[in-house]
């Protein structure tokens, strides 16, 4: 994809190479797998996971040393910042068209561990959005895992899709959708609550598609193969694909993010329509 030449963003922070300081959750082994399964491409579960994992890791710490970023890491940061700028432009335009004000979130790159208002997390969490501080957190090693362990095609637009999905969670926070979903989950069985979580995640995929539609219209930045990269990433993080890879069978009632087919379909619906009003994923479970 074409991405060079974007302006810098005051909402981007690169913490890679910085000492995390203090106590953090160690996310290796089975704990890391649990976090990845429950929280891949979503920020809503971080708050629920944090107290449980803190108890499991009581007394552990993961100190890191400060170091200078490599030239490749600097280039990676510039790319991530360029995508963030594109999300700011697109969602600013969409909100303005709907007589609303878009509140820009921050995006934090980190290595190994990070402290957030939603609690501590490690790279095993995958990219996530924290509604408490309205920030997206990413350790870029996730994308290598996505390719090597979950079979995603990779590529720069796969990364762009992930960022756009997490920004979609920010849009849901601003619009009140996330809070409404949590209210709807109260008193529901686990299976019913999971269906609501799936609807929230699929809507974030839809918003990623809407962003892609607008960005292509405004900037003409897509190149051949970009959409295929996004769809490959969406397929790799479907609940059915992850469960098949990890445990050899699927349990539909435990899905929290949607199947591979659903995730791809809602991304494409957003991309083709560019209409934020067509993203009522909750209608499918009413």
Structure, described:
This is Metalloprotease. The protein has 286 residues and is α/β, with parallel strands linked by helices. 52% of the residues lie in helices and 8% in strands. It contains 10 helices and 6 strands, in the order βαααβββββααααααα. It has helices at 29-39, 46-56, 71-97, 141-148, 156-175, 177-185, 190-219, 226-236, 239-247, 260-273; strands at residues 12-14, 106-109, 113-116, 119-122, 128-130, 135-138. The strands form 2 sheets. The chain has a 4-stranded mixed β-sheet with strand order 1-2-6-5, with helices on one face. Strands 3-4 form a two-stranded antiparallel ribbon.
Secondary structure elements and their pairing?
Layout: E1 12-14, H1 29-39, H2 46-56, H3 71-97, E2 106-109, E3 113-116, E4 119-122, E5 128-130, E6 135-138, H4 141-148, H5 156-175, H6 177-185, H7 190-219, H8 226-236, H9 239-247, H10 260-273
Parallel strand pairs: 1-2, 2-6
Antiparallel strand pairs: 3-4, 5-6
Protein name: Metalloprotease
Membrane topology: Single-pass membrane protein
Subcellular location: Membrane
Any descriptors?
286 residues, alpha/beta
